[in-house]
Write a structure and sequence with these properties.
The chain is α/β, with parallel strands linked by helices and about 350 residues long. The chain has helices at about 15-25, 45, 60-80, 85, 120-125, 145-155, 185-190, 250-260, 310-340, and strands spanning about 5-10, 30-35, 90-100, 115-120, 130-140, 160-165, 180, 195-205, 215, 225, 230-235, 240, 270-295, 295-305. It binds flavin-adenine dinucleotide. This is D-aspartate oxidase.
């Protein structure tokens, strides 16, 4: 059988990680990533990239936990290798703090991160406005380095990238056997998915190298996430807001909320403002669909809608998408064998 040709639409975190996973797990296929935006101009480049799960109301918790565990263990392996610095993957310890004691003191992901425990009284003294806290060590991917590293790995595995806007998936029909849809918010138009919508996030990237611990308010609205080169201060969650322009008043609010948690941030320098639109739906869409046009068929594997938690689950969802593709490749090979008999 001739090589199975696979096109992955999307070059954000989800498209690149899925393309790498396919190129490493399905021998003998060709993989091409097609997108109209590449790093540093994707939503994924704006993210803090910390591994703290977002909860997807439409996905069973055991499934979300499996995706998180697979992603955490995969990145921990990279973190413990000589690739860590180029990939921008590092461990980070810190605190998640709450103004009222949460109903669920031990979240479902507590045994995946390292050293999860309740904060001590002495630790809580740093946060007099808060009543309860959790301390743990997790991982963080710095972007753009992580996206650049994924793209490099894809090319080393023989994969290709093309800059192109896709208006209709059928444009790819004559050149590819299988399409993998990782277009994030682009799926609203491309697949006419009216469920996917933006949740706007504005963040500040600042220079404050003395800060080594993360601090996250349990509401998820205010956070301080130290990376290798800068610190991400957040944030906002504005549903259905498509505006990509930074708002100066929002920036002031973010800085003031973060300084209330960590007063030394008043001395932060080199403040850059970034805005990204989280591709949000109640559940990640991870499924196979066969598009039909007359007598023609176009198999599409969807992997999009990761909302606020793409970094936390990307390797788990990339593996599941690859599994769906493997099934389809096996069926193609079987029908090709039968045709030869
Ligand atoms: C402010 C902010 C902070 C965040 N922090 C975190 C965090 O700390 N931890 C975490 O886990 N998650 C975080 N996230 C969420 C995370 O960034 C997203 O879940 C993730 O980036 C989604 O990746 P994606 O590849 O699906 O989308 P994108 O990065 O948007 O990529 C979509 C790709 O599809 C392409 N595309 C779309 N339509 C078309 C088309 N018609 N033709 C061709 N190409 C097309 C685009 O060009 C792009 O390449 C954050 C998000 C924001 C905004």
């Amino acid at each position: 059988m001739t090589k199975v040709k696979i096109a992955v639409v999307g070059a954000g975190l989800i498209g690149l990680s899925t393309a790498v996973c396919i190129s490493e797990s399905i021998p003998g296929c060709s993989v091409t990533v097609i997108a109209d935006r590449f790093t540093p101009n994707t939503t994924s480049d704006v993210a803090a990239g910390i591994l703290i799960p977002h909860v997807y109301p439409g996905t069973p918790v055991h499934q979300q936990k499996q995706w998180f565990r697979e992603t955490f263990d995969y990145l921990l392996g990279i973190c413990n290798s000589s690739q860590a610095s180029e990939a921008g993957v590092h461990l980070v310890s810190g605190w998640q703090i709450f103004k009222t004691v949460p109903e669920e003191k031990t979240p479902f992901w507590s045994d995946v991160v390292l050293g999860f425990r309740s904060m001590t009284e002495k630790e809580m003294k740093k946060f007099p406005q808060h009543k309860f806290g959790q301390a743990f060590t997790t991982l963080k991917c710095d972007c753009p380095p992580y996206l650049l590293w994924l793209e490099k790995r894809l090319k080393e595995n023989g994969g290709h990238v093309h800059a192109r806007k896709i208006e209709d998936m059928w444009e790819l029909h004559s050149d590819y056997d299988i399409i993998v849809n990782c277009s994030g918010l682009g799926s609203r138009k491309l697949m006419n998915d009216q469920e996917i919508h933006p949740i706007r996030g504005q963040v500040l990237k600042v220079h404050a190298p003395w800060i080594r611990h993360f601090i996250r308010d349990g509401s998820g609205l205010t956070y301080i996430y130290p990376g290798v080169h800068d610190i991400t201060l957040g944030g906002t969650r504005q549903k259905d807001n498509w505006n990509l322009s930074p708002d100066p008043n929002t920036s002031k609010g973010i800085l003031s909320r973060c300084c209330a948690l960590e007063p030394s941030l008043h001395a932060a320098r080199d403040v850059k403002v970034k805005v990204g639109l989280r591709p949000t739906r109640s559940a990640v869409r991870l499924q196979k669909e066969v598009l039909v046009r007359g007598s023609e068929k176009l198999p599409v594997i969807h992997n999009y809608g990761h909302s606020s938690g793409g970094f936390s689950v990307h390797q788990g969802t990339a593996r599941e998408a690859t599994w769906l593709i493997k099934e389809y490749v096996a069926a193609l090979e079987m029908s090709s064998c039968k045709a030869k008999l």
